[in-house]
Amino acid sequence: xxxxxxxxxxxxxxxxxxxxxxxxxxxxxxxxxxxxxxxxxxxxxxxxxxxxxxxxxxxxxxxxxxxxxxxxxxxxxxxxxxxxxxxxxxxxxxxxxxxxxxxxxxxxxxxxxxxxxxxxxxxxxxxxxxxxxxxxxxxxxxxxxxxxxxxxxxxxxxxxxxxxxxxxxxxxxxxxxxxxxxxxxxxxxxxxxxxxxxxxxxxxxxxxxxxxxxxx
Length: 216
Known about the structure:
72% helix; mainly alpha; 2 domains
């Protein structure tokens, strides 16, 4: 009877997988506690206890509470699938209205999946300069992305009398976590309703109604 093949062991891959699972569990625990009881009162020891690990493990993984929060902010952006938005923006057939729709869809996904983290970082930033910087830098990065998209449009795409800076300001005022939260929590809209309103309202506010349309 032939010898049974030995079971392969991928110890390095196993350790890496376990480390990733630990990082993810710490992050999930931190998110639950930050949202439930507030960033300021949550300690690293609280996060460790919630995640079922030691406090030194949390420090070794994320350095400190701010590092953990920064990781949550990065994960928030990824959760909204920026690759999908980029593909839609770069579609050769996409006109300015289509690109606004792609950006609105990304914002809907971001606020639906990670709005609690964004609001938490903004609110905690009122007393924590490092968190304030994370929130401010995120807003600046979003404005820069909008600038690049708007600048790529054909001349005459913006509504008559509307300059680039004001167009960016209008977009930011319409599509933000506070507007989304008002629609969802106070007015009982669904995320689909918010996105559809953004898709309709942004072209009305930003684009010249007489702009040339791409030919089919």
